């Protein structure tokens, strides 16, 4: 069959190739003809260009000749102007010459007029020839462009056909190679399948023998140990704990989380819509700040002010429903008790919508009756009133279906299990209808807002309120669309998950049985957890010893470094004290030197004769002052200290009366001692701060190491939990597969027993018939 198909393909391709070759020849002839025409047109274009150049040269020569004639006329006019004053002086003598000049002028005028006419004629001819040449050139260029485009198109068609032909040839060659390879692989697979069938037959025989023995053993155990079969009755089977489907629970929790987010967005949009509607009633058609609004709008505003008490419970009900779906529970309609509370909250909100709907319609009618309302605005208000009615009806329809879905968790007879899928489908249709209605409301309200903004009496408050309402309506539309698409995407999963329940049964019988099953499930999980208590991990002895050595070495090195830092800080404090002392000494020496220089200068100015004697006396006085300084220093070396608020004051004894210099020394020594004390305190505080900083740094490092170890342990714990869940899932799957195999083998054994019994019956009938025949033969 494959070779016949290939031959058919080759024949079709050969026919197509022959057609393409014929078309290619025709196209080549057309291209050659067009190329010849384009070459002829190019030659004509060259000829026209040459004639144009000749005409341009003639034009240039004529213009040059015209310029010469114009210059000549100017010269003649100048000569005429010069000859006129001379002719006045000698009129008599100039009559003859004037006659000659007049004749010459007439001759020149005639000649000039002829030249001008000839020039005009040549200009006209040149202009006509130029226009004709341009027209011909444009026609030839357009024709050349069309021919070139046609040639390019023909060439592109030819290239495309050749490319297509080559691609088809390559494709057929590849198909041929693939088919050959595929045929070889199929032959190999057929051989392998034959070998596998033989092996499977042998395994089947072995399994048949093994399972027959196990079946006999299991039947004997069942007959001896099992008192009754609880799966036989649906009331008892509903109390059995089903197999834990962790993926189903995680999927349901994820879906519930997404639904909660969508409901939260919808709730915020509804709150904004009702709140901004209330603000709009206070502004339009009558501003409450200027005049009193109508009693109808006052009542409507009062009802709208209560919207949060009806809208907020929707979010709370959905949050409780999300929190009730955990990994340990079994999530079906019979176990979702919190869906009933959400349905009740939705019912209360629909009662609120029914209560405000007449006031909303009357408010729109009041807007239509106002003098500011135009015909277009009245039409938009009528459309909005119809949309509000539709929105309330859609909410009522949605609440009806959600109440039906909440019935299995409270009243098992209220909704049949066969109708679950149809109710869910209707919920999706109602959500899509809600989205369509919200799109209409958004469209009509945007048109209404644009019309109101164009009114001359439109205030800024009205414009901003309309924009806020429009944004809330857009948010409602987006939220409704997201919820509708989300529900329609997960509708198949919802319908498929309804069969989740006890094994070999249609589902949970009643909410009470479902609650009992969940209690049994919790007890079983607690029992399994108590059996599987992990041992406390301990640090190995060698690792603990290594950690202790590291800790001791780190503490010893830290103490040594702290001592070195303390010693270096003490040395630095001593050096700083000496530095400050010698700096003060240097300043005092400078002051004394300046005083002595000032004294010497004053005395040199005052005294002129006894300068040397006074200088000697001054030097003696300086030496006496130095001796007094030494004495005061000795006295200061044994000071008397008195404490005060600013520190310890060092002073001399009361017997000695200090002068100015001794007072300065006292102040200097006092402040030096105070500076030394403060520097020592500062250095002590610095050393303590460095020590505390080192300790904090070590503690932070330990804390970082502890956090890293904690993260590693948490990751290991997560991996262990994932492995445990994976092993549990594998265990459940293996159990299911083993049970399915056992059931299949039991069925097979039953069929084998039936065939064996039939064969035995046939053998017995044959024996009976053979016995009857033998008796007949004996009698004969």
Quick rundown:
InterPro entries: PPP1R21 (IPR040024), PPP1R21_C (IPR049372), PPP1R21_N (IPR019343), PPP1R21_six_helix (IPR019348). Helix content is 85%, strand content 1%.
Layout: helices, strands, pairs:
Blueprint (H helix, E strand, L loop, with lengths): L1 H88 L1 H135 L8 H4 L8 H38 L11 H10 L3 H17 L13 H32 L5 H32 L13 H34 L6 H30 L1 H6 L14 H21 L9 H66 L4 H27 L2 E5 L2 E5 L8 H120 L1
Antiparallel strand pairs: 1-2
Helix pairs in contact: 1-2, 2-15, 4-5, 4-6, 4-10, 5-7, 6-7, 7-8, 8-9, 9-10, 13-15
How would you explain this protein's 3D organization?
There is one protein chain. It is built from 15 helices and 2 strands. It has 780 residues and is an all-alpha fold. The chain has a domain of 264 residues. A two-stranded antiparallel ribbon has the order 1-2. Strand 1 and strand 2 form a beta hairpin. The radius of gyration is 59 Å and the shape is extended. The chain starts with a helix and ends with a helix.
